[in-house]
Amino acid sequence: MYKNIECVFLFSLFSCSHFLLLWIKLKEKMKKTALFIDRDGTLIVEPPVTFQVDNLEQMEFLPNVMRNLYFIRKNLSFELVMVTNQDGLGTPANPQKNFDLVQGKMLQILEGEGIVFDKIFIDESCPEDNLPTRKPGTAMLTEYMTGDYDLKNSFVIGDRLTDVELAKNLGCKAIFFCEPEEAEKILAEKKLGDFCALATKEWDRIAEFLFAGERTVTIQRTTKETDIYVHINLDGTGKCNISTGLQFFDHMLEQIGKHSGCDLTIKVKGDLGVDEHHTIEDTAIALGEALRKSLGDKRGIERYGFCLPMDDCLCTVALDFGGRPWLVWDAKFNREYVGDMPTEMFLHFFKSLSDSAKMNLNIQAEGENEHHKIEGIFKALARAIKMAIKRDIYKYELPSTKGVL
Q: Of 38, 163, 250, 282, which residue is the catalytic one?
């Protein structure tokens, strides 16, 4: 009898715990998200000398801001929250009348384009006042910190380091409106890199990121013969960090990252004491898997790409990320090695890459210089990848009549 009671009690406890977990998850899903958007330098151009928009003649919207804000407003569930520091607003240096004229006209134009901010927060203090309401302080935004908002999936968008610091203080991530290379240096210097989800100077890229997400993948592939780490960001800037133990192979793989615009990290420890075969083959398999997974469901991509001349050589690479592996190889090499890489492994690399990425590859190369020929092939592959992975969120459809890739 007691055993039955104990079973019923435990079952009830389990059921309650399960229900509680489901309720917690449901509440998390019901939480609201927000975009905390800076004004000057993010929505409208910030004058370079005064850093202050004083009249309507100075008011100029940044490129593509309106169409992308409208897209975000129409297709995503973020609340739009303007958060701006206006130094000494209401003083002779920054008259309230001038600000109200510009602000009113800006909001009127945005509203005419279907863009309405849910809340607007303006701090009127100067930097030397050190008020907690001034960015990166959060005193104006306490209503978003009560637990009703999913701040982990909310973003601060702005062109100043204080916007990134605000994101850190709120517990969300920043979209830093800054050129990526410049942003990388600034964020590293201030140790704020972990709080920035994206650095870009383009509103098209911001909308794409918010709507379709990042296209980054990490692959760790370990066998008895090789230990391979691959990280790829399809929407990067061509930054590469390659180390396979084969210098010429490193040089070729760098062409893929550099000329495709993908950020690419590849670290390989292979059994080079045996020979180069496993290192080259397994790297192709891991890289192909990274390409395939980072493309996700492939909606909005171009899917196809091709071509490249290099000095005495003409190299053509046509590819299709159609979900089916196939390789056509028409390239002959007369030397046994180029650098420290055996030429017989070129075909094997591209076959393994095609199989793992599940893509069609048609490769043709003609010319005299063996180095130029294979480098041309890798560069042509990179340019083909760049064309094929290009994504358009305004035509976010599967590039296939079959309905699946």
A: 38
Write out the two tokens for 320. Answer: 């299709």
Cβ atoms 172, 150 nearer than 8 A = no
Please report the pLDDT score of residue 328 as a whole number: 97
User: Which CATH number is 216-393 given?
Assistant: 3.30.230.40
For this structure, is 312 an active site residue? no
> pLDDT digit string (tens) for 183-238?
999 999 999 999 999 999 999 999 999 999 999 999 999 999 999 999 999 999 99
Which residue ranges does the chain devote to CATH 3.40.50.1000? 30-212
- Percent pLDDT > 90 in the chain is 85
| Residue with token string 């975000």 | 72
Pairing of strands 263-270, 226-233: antiparallel
CATH code reported for the domain at 30-212 = 3.40.50.1000
Q: Is-catalytic flag, 235? A: no
Per the residue annotation, which of 40, 159, 163, 250 is the catalytic one?
40
pLDDT for 19 equals 54
Identify the residue with better confidence: 306 or 289: 289
Q: What's the pTM value of the predicted model, to 2 decimals?
A: 0.83
Alpha helices (H) along 38-95: 65-75
Q: Which string of b and e fits 298-307 if b means at least 16 CB within 10 Å?
A: bbbbebebbe
Would strands 313-320 and 308-310 be described as parallel, antiparallel, or unpaired? antiparallel
pLDDT of residue 114: 96
Residues of the chain with CATH 3.30.230.40: 216-393
For the segment 295-312, the average pLDDT, to the nearest whole number, is: 82
- Asked if 152 contacts 171 with a C-beta cutoff of 8 angstroms, the reply is yes
